[in-house]
Each structure stands twice: as C-alpha cells, then as structure tokens.
Amino acid sequence: MEQLKTIGRELAMGSQGGFGQSKEFLDLVKSIGESRSKAEEDRIVLNEIDTLKRRIAEPDIPKRKMKEYIIRLLYVEMLGHDASFGYIHAVKMTHDDSLVLKRTGYLAVTLFLNEDHDLIILIVNTIQKDLKSDNFLVVCTALNAVCKLINEETIPAVLPQIVDLLAHPKEAVRKKAVMALHRFYRKSPSSVSHLLSNFRKRLCDNDPGVMGATLCPLFDLVTTDVSSYKDLVISFVNILKQVAERRLPKAYDYHNMPAPFIQIKLLKILALLGNGDKQASEHMYTVVGDIFKKCDSASNIGNALLYECICCVSSIYPSPKLLEAAADVIARFLKSDNHNLKYMGIDALGRLISKPEIVEQHQLAVIDCLEDPDDTLKRKTFELLYKMTKSSNVEVIVDRMIDYMISINDSHYKTEIASRCVELAEQFAPSNQWFIQTMNKVFEHAGDLVNIKVAHNLMRLIAEGFGEDDESADSQLRSSAVESYLRIIGEPKLPSLFLQVVCWVLGEYGNADGKFSASYITGKLCDVAEAYSNDETVKAYAVTAIMKVYSFEIAAGRKLDILPECQSLIEELSTSHSTDLQQRAYELQALTELDGHPVECIMPLDASCEDIEVDRNLSFLDGYVKESLEKGAEPYIPENERSGIFDISNFRSQEQHEVSTHSLRFEAYELPKTSVPVGISPVPLTSSSELVPVPEPSYYREAQQMPSVSSSSDAGPSEIKLRLDGVQKKWGKPSYSSPATSTNSASQKPVNGVTQAEGMTTGNPRTREISYESNRTQVEISPEKQKLAASLFGGSSKTEKRASSSTGNKVAKASNLTTSKAAASAFTDTVVEKSHPVQPPPDLLDLGEPSVTGSTQAVDPFKQLEGLLDPSQGTSSGNAVGTSKAPDVISLYSDMYTTEQSGGLVQSPSSDGLDSKSTSASVNATLHSAQSNKGPNAKDSLEKDALVRLMGVTPSSPNPNLFKDLLG
C-alpha cells in the first residue's frame, strides 16, 4: 500500500508540474511554445533571466529548487541568450553526492562550457574522483563529460584512469572509455600513441556494443596507415560474417536488419584494406556477395547497406561476379521512382566509371536523370558525365553543361560548371576552333566568374596557333577568332574579362589578313570604349588596341585615316581623372604623328610570343655613364656609403637575426638623428651609444639608458629629445609582426573507381532480365534520346586518360615557347595546372626575368633615337635600334616587386605604359640633368622620353600594359 501511495504522489506531481518541477517551470515552457513571434519569445526569456538572477542570488536555496533553476538556465541558453551568470552554480552541482543532481550538473556543464573555458580547471578534480566511483552510473556520467570538456592540456590528468576503465566489468563503462580514448586520439594523437594496441584488444570484446564502438577509432587508424592493419582483414571479415548471419542479439536489429551500422562501418574499413590488394580482397568476396543476396531493398537502411557494398566493390580488387551484382543493384536504383534512390544510383555509377560496359548499360537512365526536374539529381548526373568525358563525347557533354549553366542563377554552382567546361575543353578539345567557340560561350554567359587564368590561356592559344609550321592554319584560326568577336561585340552587355580578351585579339589580329579595314576595327573598338565608359580597364584595353591597329597601318606604309569618334575619344581621355588613360591617350596621339620606321620598332607586328631579353646590369648604359662622368657629372654614391646614414644592410641583418630568435619584433619608431651643438665637433653616429637603436627588447634598452638621458638633459632645454625607442608604430610597417610563412598546398584530383590490372580479363556480362531497357514497357524512346545516348556513350569503350596528350590537336603546346627558366619560374601561377606532373608552359604574356645578357653597348641611346626620329641620320643607328636585343629595363622593376609580392604574379611595366619611374640609382644620378617636363609638341615629348621608350618597348615586347590591365 505504501508503494502505491508513493506512485500516486509522483503521478500527481507529474500532472501539476512534471515530476517534481514547479508549475512556474511548466508555465515557462508553455508560454515559450505558444509565442507567436521572436520578439514575444525574447520578452519571455528576458523576464525569466531577471527572475533567475534574483532567485539564484538568494541564500540557502533547496537543492531541488537549484536543480530546477539550472534546467531553466538550459532553456535560456538554448534559445540564444546569455546565461553565464549561472555557470558556476552548475559547476558546484557536479560536486553533489546525489546521483540525480550530479547528472544534472554534468549535463548543464557539458552544454554550457567548451573545452577552453576558464571554469574547466574546477571540474577536472571532480571528474578524477567520479572516475573512481563504485557506482557505474557516476562513472558513465563522468566519461560523458570527459568526451566533451577535456582538452589537450588536461588529457594526462585523466588518461591513466580511463585506460584502467577499459577492463571495467560493466560493458557501458568500457564502451564509453573507448569513446573517450577515440576523442583523445582525434584531439592529440601523440598523447595516446602508446595506447593504440588497446583498440585491437577491445575489438575482441564479448559485448557487441564495445566492439562496434572500437570500429570508429580503428577506421581512423586504418585511414592513416593501411599497411599496419593488413593483419586484421580476416578478423574484420569474420565479424562481418557473424553479423550478416544474425548471430548478434535481437536488440541490435534495426528495421529487421542485423546491426546495419556495424556492417556499414566494417565495409568502409574493408574497402580501405582491400584497395589494390588482391590477396586481401579475395577474403572479402564471399561475405560481400552474401550481403548482396541477403540484404532487403524494401527499407532505406537496406538500400544504404547495398550502396555501401557497391562502394566497397568499386574500391577493392575487382571481381567479375561482384561487379555484376553491383550493376544489378544500380539498375534497381535507377528504375525506382524515388529520387533519393536515383541519386544513389547515379553516384554509384560514378564509382564504377572505370568499367564502361557497366555504364553503357544504363545510358538511357542517365539521359532521363539529365532531364529530370529535380535539380539535385540533375547536378549529380552532370558530375557523372564530367567523369566519363572523353574525346569522342566532349562536344555533346560540354554543350549540355553550358546550356545548364545558362539556365541556373546560383553563382557558386555556375562558377563550378564553368570551370569544369573549361577543364574538359582544354583536355579533350577536338580542334582549336571548337575550343575558341566554347570559351566564347563560357565567357559570355558565366561573366566574371571565370578564372583570369582562362583568359591568359585563350589569348596564348590564339597567339600560338596550332604550334606547327603551318602558317595558313594559324592565320585561319586567328581570322575565325576575329570574326566571332566582331559578331559578339555587338551584344548589349558583356563581361569585363571577356571584353579584355576581345580587345586584345582585335588589336593584334583585327586587320592582319586584310579582310577588315583599320577604320572598321577602330570604329568597333571606339564603340566598346563608349559603351563601357565606367569600366576603366576595358577602356584602357580598347585604347591600346586602337594604338596597335594604327601602328600596324603606319608601319605598312598605308594612309592613316583617324575616325572622328576616335579623335573625340582621345580628347576625352586626355582630360580623364585616370592618369593611366591620360597617358595612353597622349601616347596614341603622339604615335600617329611618327613615321613608319620608328613605329615599326616601337610596335612590332605579332610579337606577343617572342622572348624578352633583359640586361639586369644595364650594361648598355656604361658608355653613356662614362661620357657623363667625363663631362663633370657627379658619380653615384651607394646608399650605405652616404654621409649621415649608417650601413642599412647591417641593421637589416641584425633585424632578421632578431626576428629569427624572437617571436616578436622590436623596432624603433624611426631612425634617430644626432644633434650637434654649436661649437662642438660632430661625432659619428655609430659611436653614440645613446642614440643608435639596437634591435633588442625596448624595455631593456630603456632601463639601461635612463641615466644617460638624464645626464644629457643638463645641457639645456634645447637638448632634450623625445625617446621613441620601443614605441609601436601607428603608421607604416608594423613594429610587432612575425614573418608569415606561406605554405603551398598541391591540390590533388581524386581518382574514382578502380584500375583493371594487367592480365585480368573479364568477359562481357550476360544479358540480365532486370536490365533497364527491358523494364521500360509501354514507353516509346524518342529518336532524340537515342541520338543523345549514342553521342554520350558511343565511340571507343576503353577508358581514356584525362590528359592533354590524349588528343591529336593540343590546346596549349608548351614546345613552342622557348622562354628561359627564370621567366618560367616567375610566372608559374599564370599557367593552368595540368593533371600530369610536367612543368607547365610559360604564359603567353610572360614578362619574367630571363637570363642576364652580358653584352655592352657604348652607343649613346639618345643618338640611336635621333636616327629613329630623323631618317636622314645614318642607317647604322636605325639598324641598331631595330635589333631584337634592344635594351630593356624591366629588370629594374622586377627586383622591387618580387620582394614585396613573393610567390604571386609579378606585375612588370608594359610597353605602352612608358613609366618614367626608375629604380636604378645610377640611372637616376646620370640622367637627372636630362629630365624635364613634357612640352605640348609630341615630337619633343618623345625625344625627352626616348630612353625609357627605347628600354620599355622592344621588337619582342608583348601586348602593352597587359598585366597592368588584367591584374588592375
């Protein structure tokens, strides 16, 4: 009777407030559930926070009430509000002797805190004590907290006790101990590296739950090191066989499937161990085949187990019988009306892509999935087509992918589709004309989502052509590109990157074959500059292209007719706020006033693929410097030898050494200057111990220099100096910065499917009654689908390697470019990475640093230019200028940029930029007297900028200002 009364009281309390909880708590939960808006919910929670703050602060709160308050704090925290004022009370509750209160406290702590919280240190002692408890429920509660709260620093405090719990008599404790060790391995592998053998022992545990928990850490270990666990193949196979034969208790069944999650984990492990290992795979054939036969496909968990079997079969050494069974299951998946099963079938088919005979059996099903309204299924089908692309079906697949890319609005997936189209077109393009047309479509519809490297490759392809000696084929390729761009250029809105390519091609080859006149090409380019007036990059490309067209006309000796719209464009840009556009406009106007010979040297025809020879030592200026010195010019004084400044290189070496020995960098705010009083001889700066900043910790230097500063202050108020040693900079280079270490990660392309070994022959699979085609009853297949399937799956059934070498016509040919090693290494990032590890071809517009030439020219550069400007001068100077080894000063800029942009794309000065900036101090000193402002006369301006123009524009120079335009 007493027990019945107790049960009655508990039921009564449950009807009022929920088994010991107050009615106030029940009203809180009810009001939160009935709130109609987020604002109303926030108002209820804020009132509850005020109530809890007041209640928790009261003295002598009963434990039952405190437990309720902690649970109410959990509601507050889960709804997104701050309940940190009650964290300490949850920590205190973990110390309680009552099991109910202790479990409540641990539950709250694991939900409130993270492993880096300051209160974790208060829980470690409690966890250590509870792990030694005689009550296994307390031990399990402490192990749950260990998996959530113990960080890398506190692992050694509890690790010995958890290892002891692996032999606990209760299976629940052993299971949670294995889970805790797995957590430690993921958090800090080195801390449990000596305990990995315990996982092997627990694999033989009598309890299936402990064994199943051990499979999770073993899967991580096998993934890291497969060879060390090859001896466990037979053990895993035996366990899987026992599970599949229903030898486990009924409690482990799920939807009438025997321990399906244990089977899935075992199949994952066996797939890793049998990959490429024939001997290990032979042990797995029987048990995997039994699972194919016994597995029930009527439930979702059964289909999941079948899918995992297909993944295992595709990974291990191939077996004809298992591949046939996998093909039957894939056929059932693809026939299903459930989109989830179709998705699994397409994904499983992608894993067997190395077996074309299996894929070709389901070609019509793939076509149906490609036209399915489910967007997720359609995207998965495109992934399958991407994997099965080869030279015979690349045109059909890329066209379908481009059509799908046009129809979607998701910018992220559109970018992915565009990159795949570009990759497939580069690897399997049947012809260069098709490649150009495909790139035009991708640029036109994907916009600026396309990688800038694709633009570089497209321009390089057009410039190089087929890479052979057939000039007619190259001319035909460029002519077709010009015609296609002239048709596209009239579209209302085109992407900026695509317009840059269009302008470059029209400027280089617009009137090369004589089919289109220079006036027509320049008119189109003026229309582009006017239509995209807000895009300075496009306008700069258009102006440069017009300059090229006019240069080629002048060099050919044809009469030049400048269009009125072109003249108005020049006048408009001459007053532009952009200095770059201003300079291009002035250059174009000045170039139209020159004769044919200098124009031909400045703007050579079709020189975008030629190499650039750079004289790093500027030896061609030696004669000019010598002559200037003889006339009384002051010699150049190196920076470290100038008066008043000490050796900068020594200071930098000390600074680098300091950075290497300290994690922080200590620098002075600025270099102090010596103050020399009147009547006192100046003291060399290096001899002053008070004013020379040494790269040491600033607080240490200040402690030593305080007496010297006070003594120097006696000289008078005028001698008092503000000491800035150790003060952190607010502008310029930060004072406390450590050099960032850049790591290059090489992206690897996953290889799906397995490789057929040499010598292993498989016969054609027998005709199955469950094939996809035989079940399409009363369904008429349209001729369009049959034609599409023949295009996608037709041709050779042999697998082809994804390499550019698999096609007859290469899209990009590295053999044509004979750039130096330095140029190739400086611009490695501009070349699209190929799948095979060969050195990528240098970029078409590579302006890197070639090998140093040691030739010395004693001829005055100004005299050379005079020969260009005045044909009446001797022919010898004109010939000297026209040689391919004309002086170049790109190396002046390369050193400066490479130190600031290490690893990136170096932005070299372009030929039409005509930068007057000089980084060589010797040139600054000797040419200082020759520099003056430009006059209104264009010829005078050219004469005064002759040396820079001569050094910046050579007959082998590529497209002017290309990198400046493409990279901004």
TrEMBL record:
<comment type="similarity">
    <text>Belongs to the adaptor complexes large subunit family.</text>
</comment>
<dbReference type="InterPro" id="IPR016024">
    <property type="entry name" value="ARM-type_fold"/>
</dbReference>
<feature type="domain" description="Clathrin/coatomer adaptor adaptin-like N-terminal">
    <location>
        <begin position="55"/>
        <end position="593"/>
    </location>
</feature>
<keyword id="KW-0472">Membrane</keyword>
<feature type="compositionally biased region" description="Polar residues">
    <location>
        <begin position="735"/>
        <end position="765"/>
    </location>
</feature>
<keyword id="KW-0333">Golgi apparatus</keyword>
<comment type="subunit">
    <text>Adaptor protein complex 4 (AP-4) is a heterotetramer composed of two large adaptins, a medium adaptin and a small adaptin.</text>
</comment>
<dbReference type="GO" id="GO:0030124">
    <property type="term" value="C:AP-4 adaptor complex"/>
</dbReference>
<feature type="compositionally biased region" description="Polar residues">
    <location>
        <begin position="900"/>
        <end position="935"/>
    </location>
</feature>
<feature type="region of interest" description="Disordered">
    <location>
        <begin position="831"/>
        <end position="856"/>
    </location>
</feature>
<keyword id="KW-0653">Protein transport</keyword>
<dbReference type="InterPro" id="IPR017109">
    <property type="entry name" value="AP4_complex_esu"/>
</dbReference>
<protein>
    <recommendedName>
        <fullName>AP-4 complex subunit epsilon</fullName>
    </recommendedName>
</protein>
<dbReference type="InterPro" id="IPR011989">
    <property type="entry name" value="ARM-like"/>
</dbReference>
<dbReference type="InterPro" id="IPR002553">
    <property type="entry name" value="Clathrin/coatomer_adapt-like_N"/>
</dbReference>
<feature type="region of interest" description="Disordered">
    <location>
        <begin position="730"/>
        <end position="814"/>
    </location>
</feature>
<dbReference type="Pfam" id="PF01602">
    <property type="entry name" value="Adaptin_N"/>
</dbReference>
<feature type="compositionally biased region" description="Polar residues">
    <location>
        <begin position="804"/>
        <end position="814"/>
    </location>
</feature>
<dbReference type="GO" id="GO:0016192">
    <property type="term" value="P:vesicle-mediated transport"/>
</dbReference>
<dbReference type="InterPro" id="IPR050840">
    <property type="entry name" value="Adaptor_Complx_Large_Subunit"/>
</dbReference>
<dbReference type="GO" id="GO:0006886">
    <property type="term" value="P:intracellular protein transport"/>
</dbReference>
<keyword id="KW-0813">Transport</keyword>
<dbReference type="GO" id="GO:0012505">
    <property type="term" value="C:endomembrane system"/>
</dbReference>
<comment type="function">
    <text>Subunit of novel type of clathrin- or non-clathrin-associated protein coat involved in targeting proteins from the trans-Golgi network (TGN) to the endosomal-lysosomal system.</text>
</comment>
<feature type="region of interest" description="Disordered">
    <location>
        <begin position="900"/>
        <end position="943"/>
    </location>
</feature>
